[in-house]
Each structure stands twice: as structure tokens, then as C-alpha cells.
């Protein structure tokens, strides 16, 4: 498993509720891809969402996000953290 | 206090040790700006570092990063999180 940070653009105006709903939709199916979404943060003014996950691959992260209707614009393995 | 995600580009080849040293340099002076750096993640292949903090403003985050020699390329308030 590797830690990933994925980034969504064009999310201006996202609300606390829509962030929670999107996160819960991902969590509902993540087990099918062995992905574990841990946290997500949103900048509603600039329309950016960051999602932190543990996953076997960036493709597995993207498959979950695609199935729930919000594919990521960037997915970065972040093997280093403090 | 607001939560911020700041992003550093052009960090290709960053190591676990250099990430830790940079984070510790920030932590050593963060109190002077009332900033609290909580976590940081690095993608050494693409040269991206994400830093999560609580801070009074994006300017205060940047002042700490500038003084420690690694100004952020983007600083986003992320008032929404799950």
C-alpha cells in the first residue's frame, strides 16, 4: 500500500455537505479496490479538493473516484510524510 | 484560525531526511507567526510537497516558509474537511 494525495479542480462552490456526500460515496465502494480514503480538504473559493488515501495504485484511486462521478485531475504518490 | 494546504513545486528528489529537516525548521519558528504545521507529504518523483497547517492567514504561513528558505508556490485555505 502507498499513500496518495489526489487533487480535484473546478470544484468552486463546494459545500461541507457536498464534500461529505462525495467522501461517503467513495468510502461506500472503496473496499472493492482495496483503497482507504482517510481525509479530504476543500478550498471552495478556488475550487480545489485534496484527498488523502492509502491504496495499491493510483489507478485504483481513480477507479473509485470515476465510479462515484468525480475523477481526480491529479493523483500523486506521497511515499514521504512527516 | 483557518486550516491551510500549501503546495511546493520543483522539489524533485526530495528525501525523507530533507523533508523532515524542512518541517523541523518550520516548526522551530512557527510560534512567532501563530502557525501550527501539522503534517506534510512529498511526491519526490514529481517534486511536489503538500503541507497542512492551522494559521491565522496565508501570509503567516508564507512568512514562516520564506524565513526557512522554501516559500510555497500555492497556499489554499481549506475551511472544509472530512
Q: How many DSSP H or I helices of chain A?
A: 2
What's the total count of β strands of chain A? Answer: 5
Oligomeric category: homodimer
Q: Could you give the order of the helices and strands of chain A?
A: EHEEHEE
What is the percentage of strand-forming residues of chain A?
Answer: 35-45%
| Number of structural units classed as domains of chain A | 1
| Spatial strand sequence of the major β-sheet of chain A | 2-3-1-4
Helix content of chain A: 25-40%
Pfam families (chains A, B): SCO4226-like
InterPro entries (chains A, B): SCO4226 (IPR042557), SCO4226-like (IPR025336)
Protein name (chains A, B): SCO4226 family nickel-binding protein
Polypeptide structure, described:
Chains A, B: InterPro entries: SCO4226, SCO4226-like. The structure is a homodimer of 82-residue chains. Chain A is α+β, with helices and mostly antiparallel strands and 82 residues long. Chain A has one domain (2-77): ORF SCO4226, nickel-binding ferredoxin-like monomer (Alpha-Beta Plaits, 2-Layer Sandwich). Helix content of chain A is 29%, strand content 35%. Chain A has two helices and five strands. The first copy, chain A, has helices at 16-29, 58-67; strands at residues 2-8, 36-43, 48-55, 74-77, 80-81. Chain A has a four-stranded antiparallel beta sheet with strand order 2-3-1-4, covered by helices on one side. In chain A, a hairpin with a 4-residue loop joins strand 2 (36-43) and strand 3. The longest helix of chain A has 14 residues, at 16-29. At the A-B interface, helix 1, strand 2, strand 3 and strand 5 of A face helix 1, strand 2, strand 3 and strand 5 of B.
